[in-house]
Amino acid sequence: MTKVKMILLVLTAGLLVFGIAYAKDYEATKKAGDYTVEIKIDKNPPVVGKNNMGIGIKDAAGKNVTDAKVKVEYTMPAMPGMPAMDYKTDATLDGDAYRAILDLSMSGSWSIAVKIIRGEKTAKVKFSIDAQ
């Protein structure tokens, strides 16, 4: 019985290490007017410091939008003894998706707003993340 327990312990530890090493990106999808916006952050959960964010935008027909200007604003509200934090960055087109870097200055809840400017129209969608 001891041998069986040892084998199970080794297998469980191996699966745990494998799961941590190959954790999925943080992913979320929301609608912004006629657009479907999917964000992917390379760390799950996002961390204090630099996080790479991919932004996929599809129009009402399901086609990738590659002709928009995309801005990302990420904020943390003021708390006792701490002012609000407000950062902005432009996303750049990389293939069929946009890329941005979120440089989160502290752990806690952050609000991310993705603004899509295409022609004369602007659409905006908000996501919430908890950085660690």
How does this structure look, described?
The chain is of the alpha+beta class and 132 residues long. The protein has a single domain (24-131), classed as Immunoglobulin-like (Sandwich), CATH 2.60.40.1930. Helices cover 15% and strands 55% of the residues. The chain has one helix and eight strands, in the order H-E-E-E-E-E-E-E-E. A hairpin with a 2-residue loop joins strand 1 and strand 2. The longest helix is centred in the first third of the chain and has 20 residues, at 2-21. The mean pLDDT is 90.
What kind of oligomer do you see? single chain
The chain-level mean pLDDT equals 90
Number of strands: 8
CATH architect. name:
Sandwich
Which residues sit in consecutive blocks of at least 5 with pLDDT less than 50?
Answer: none
How many domains? The number is: 1
Q: What is the third-level CATH name, the topology? A: Immunoglobulin-like
Strand line-up across the major sheet: 1-2-3-6-5-4-7-8
Tell me the distance between the termini: 41 Å
Q: Specify the CATH class.
A: Mainly Beta
Query: Largest sheet, described in full?
Result: 8 strands, antiparallel
Give the DSSP E fraction (strand runs of 2 or more residues): over 45%
Per-chain topology:
Layout lengths: L1 H20 L4 E7 L2 E7 L7 E10 L10 E8 L8 E10 L2 E8 L3 E11 L2 E11 L1
Antiparallel strand pairs: 1-2, 2-3, 3-6, 4-5, 4-7, 5-6, 7-8
Features:
132 residues; alpha+beta; Immunoglobulin-like; 15% helix; globular
